[in-house]
Every structure is written in structure tokens, then in C-alpha cells.
Amino acid sequence: MTGIARWLSAWDEWLPRLLRAPARGAAEHRRGLEQALHDDVAIGMAALTLKLDLIATSTVDPATGAEIDATRVALCRIIDDLRKVGTSIYPPVLVSAGLKPALGSVAESLDLRLRLDLPARDLGEDAKSRTGLLVADHLHTLCPGTFVTVRVRGRRFVRVRITAERPGEPGRHTHRAVLRCE
């Protein structure tokens, strides 16, 4: 390691890391993917589950009924997995409920301790969706039990600071990003 690299690595613990903000079109693209997974695939599979229930009630053979029940359970598990994938692509409550409920839902599903410091006025749609994706993506990288503080400031230039304290590790890890929004 060269002298400058060694010097920078010594300060790595103290310097904030920069997060990569999602591009403008990424939020719309990811929302479309989440809707396609939920609307097309998950709802279609839920309809198949109902059909299997109807077939199971009309069948007289116990072995066939048990096989149908096992298939229905496996299908329900796949539907839940698809919904988790869709939620990690784009938190569905981000559009309807806003930034605070969406990030709270993500943190709860990942078993994180989240403290939000959001602006008093609501962000615009572009800023809200891009900020929500930035923070949600970062929350998915943290281990369960981590204490996380998210601070968001600005409207046109949105500044995001995420501070994480991992259980059993000394110090805080800070990540920052600036998003230019319309």
C-alpha cells in the first residue's frame, strides 16, 4: 500500500461515505417492475391458490387432497417471496403513504431501529421517490438490530445523511448523498 492509500485507509473510519443516488428514470422503472410483479404475477398466483382450494374441496381421494394442500402451501410461499422481492425493488407504500411510513415499513421488515429526521414540508414526488429508494436500498445492506438515523434536508437539492450504529461494533458509520430534484 502506498503512503497516501495507507493514510486514507487510517481515516476511513472517520470520513463519511458517499451513496450513489438513483437516477431520475430509475424510480419510475422500479415502480413499474414492482407493479408488474404484484399485479401480474402475484395476483395470478393468488387466483391459482383459490382454484386449488376449490379442487381440494371437491376431491374425494385423501392422497390427492394432501398433494393439492402441499402445492397450495408452496404456492403461498412463492407469492410471499415475490411480494418481498417487489417490496425491495420499490416500497409500495412510498407512493400512497409517503416517505416516513415507507421507510418505517422497510426498517421493521429488516429488524432495524430507525429514527427519521425529515423536513417539515413534504418533498416533491421526484424527490420523495428517489430519496425513498436511496435510503431503502441502504437499509437493505445493514444487519438486523442496527440503530439507524436518517436525516433529510432540502427540496431542490436534497441532502441525505444516514448514520448507522451496528450492535457490538464501536463507532458510527455515516453515509451521505445529494440528489438534484425538480
Quick structural summary:
The protein is an alpha/beta fold and 182 residues long. Helix content is 56%, strand content 17%. The longest helix is centred in the N-terminal third of the chain and has 35 residues, at 24-58.
SSE topology string: HEHHHHEHEEE
| End-to-end Cα distance | 43 Å
Proportion of strand residues: 15-25%
Mean pLDDT: 85
The radius of gyration over CA amounts to: 22 Å
Global structural class: alpha/beta
Oligomer: single chain
Q: Report strand order across the widest sheet.
A: 1-5-4-3-2
Largest sheet: 5 strands, mixed
The helix tally amounts to 6
Question: Based on CA inertia axes, which overall geometry fits?
Answer: elongated
How would you characterize the overall build of this protein?
This protein has six helices and five strands. It has helices at residues 3-11, 24-58, 62-89, 93-96, 99-109, 125-139; strands at 17-18, 113-117, 147-153, 157-165, 173-180. It has a five-stranded mixed sheet, covered by helices on one side. A hairpin with a 3-residue loop joins strand 3 (147-153) and strand 4.
Map the helices and strands.
Blueprint: H1 3-11, E1 17-18, H2 24-58, H3 62-89, H4 93-96, H5 99-109, E2 113-117, H6 125-139, E3 147-153, E4 157-165, E5 173-180
Parallel strand pairs: 1-5, 2-3
Antiparallel strand pairs: 3-4, 4-5
